[in-house]
# Entry
Amino acid sequence: MDTEEFRRHAHAFVDWMADYLDEIESYPVKAQVEPGDIAKRLPGAPPESGEPMEAIFRDFREVIVPGMTHWQHPNFFAYFPANSSPPSVLAEMLTATLGAQCMIWQTSPAAAELEGRVMEWLRQMIGLPEGFTGVIQDTASTATLCAILCARERASGFRTNEAGLDDAGVFTTYCSRETHSSVEKDVKIAGLGRENLRMIPTDDRFAMVPEALEDAIERDLAAGRTPTCVVATLGTTGASGVDPLAAIGEICGRHRVWLHVDAAWAGTALILPEQRWMIEGIEHADSFVFNPHKWMLTNFDCSAYFVRDVGALLRTFEILPEYLKTAEGDRVDNYRDWGIPLGRRFRALKLWFVIRSYGLAGLRAIIRGHIDMARALAREMADAGDFEILAPPTLSLFCFRFRPPAVTDPAEIDRLNQALLERLNASGALYLTHTRIREAYAIRFCIGQAGTAQRPVDAAWRRIRDTARALPGR
# Structure
């Protein structure tokens, strides 16, 4: 493909992209296909000869798009948002065109220096104190793994990277029962063992109980184990619990345990001054992560990871073979040493585009709007008489269930709500997911898509209410 052909197809693609954003509400939110439907329409072997781009793009529209769940749809209320925005998409186009591998400063000086500056902007935007230094990771799962590995190295005197874990003893990690499953996965990857992950009870606000954490640490110390890392969460996946950082941090300080704060989703809300209560006690933290690719209008993947001790991070990950040595030495930040992969995408560009395009005022207005809509809808549901709020909206996520007065059996209430969720998602009109709140089946409602406004929220509530009240057996 020469550049003139590229130009022609690129214009056609951009026209389709703009039409897609304009017409996204015409698509079913959740893909209305069965397992194997897409694969059956794809050839079993690659083509011997090249095909025209017109044919490839036609198959994209006719085969691929019908099998996509549309995360940018204003009626997407499932999981957490994975936001995009026109400025971010434009930046991704430029990033793909540049095709840079930004592993060290020398391979793309602008990428390295822009990342440093944008991460400092983010630190200021969310209210982290001076002393935190940021780097972009791909996901919060990776950032948390980095934190656990740094904690392991610090607890072992940086010996396990050299000698392995065989004679290192038992390193224990702590998180709440509401913490994201990635922590368990990271503990396994780090070689610390799932048996050495302590799930700490939560209170009626779904937040970690500090007294239970301290008891667990003291039991491990008495048994000769090494308490290594505590993962505190701001905005748990199931019910949006917020762990008390000040109390947890004091415990970590007394016992010299690394405190990592996972604010993957909720961290974006810290750009609102009224939400800074969530990081009271942040001065105790060793590391902090949140995902601009969730709620800050920035395409996946872009995870902001902050550390207090850059030296500990570098000592954990730095390897300097001859072929990666450059003349700049310590005068620059080579971000390949700040995490797990050697290769790095130019992620800072899209974040820079988003922050400059919307400004703090624009971003704050969007986030406040989502929070206000969630709180208003939760109140309306609670007033309906046959709906129950199981987890109120700390931010823009809450959990509810349909509970008609005539149905009292817990198993039957669960069955009704599972049937409700399946009918709603099968309609294609909206997309929701579920969790368990104190063993009860609950439906999550998370507002966070850039295009979500009051109209789709009101329409979703009408469909939820009408579908629930039409269920057989209610």
